[in-house]
């Protein structure tokens, strides 16, 4: 396929939930592409020492998720999605405008993820959590339903799946919202259906995703 061998995806173990957090963004792409990898889970307690070890190895600003390929370190969620898309020669835009558009969608989703994380991991106030639930979250759902209506769908760029599609699906998983009223959000409803019917993802979603 490519020079992608001996891949290790590192991320936290969080709250006995196999999918919550940023590791799953990368994982969905790898699963869809049928790329083999080992998922290495870290506890919060162990991460401090592990991070120091990475710093000692001159890894700059180590954070999770990160990936090693044959021992070489690569990091940051959206850049990892773009990196793998580039390596696999799929899931990318086919011209500068599409590439920019996908970048913008990925940026929106990463912002959404940070705001969602603030409500779950308590780094924001209760007032922020209320605003997230009543305004921020619904605004993102509406925006992406509208974006999906810009093409015939079912994916962000239309017929062809691209890397922000995996991110969009997963932020909605994290936000515990992957079932849509087809009347209110017909395009999100069709999107979720299309993702769930990707052959490799269908098999993966049937597991416990440990
Ligand atoms: N912009 C980075 C953010 C990564 C990040 O903050 N990850 C968190 C976990 S979701 C983390 O590693 N926290 C521990 C730390 O910063 O040491 C990305 O998209 O990957």
Total DSSP helices:
8
| Cα radius of gyration in angstroms | 17 Å
Q: Mean pLDDT across all residues, rounded?
A: 94
Q: How many domains in all?
A: 2
The name of the CATH topology of the largest domain is: Glutathione S-transferase Yfyf (Class Pi), Chain A, domain 2
Kindly estimate the percentage of residues that lie in beta strands according to DSSP.
5-15%
Stretches where pLDDT falls below 50 for ≥5 residues? none
Quick overview of this protein structure:
This protein is of the alpha+beta class and 210 residues long.
What does this entry look like structurally?
This protein is an alpha+beta fold and about 210 residues long. The protein has 2 domains: about 5-90, Glutaredoxin; about 95-200, Up-down Bundle (Glutathione S-transferase Yfyf (Class Pi), Chain A, domain 2), CATH 1.20.1050. About 55% of the residues lie in helices and about 10% in strands. It has helices at about 25-35, 45-55, 75-90, 95-120, 125-150, 165-175, 185-195, 200-205; strands at about 5-10, 40, 65-70, 70-75. A 4-stranded mixed β-sheet has the order 2-1-3-4. Helix 4 (about 95-120) runs antiparallel to helix 5 (about 125-150). The chain is globular, with a radius of gyration of 17 Å. Bound molecules: glutathione. Glutathione binds near residues 51, 77 and 110. Glutathione binds near residues 64 and 76.
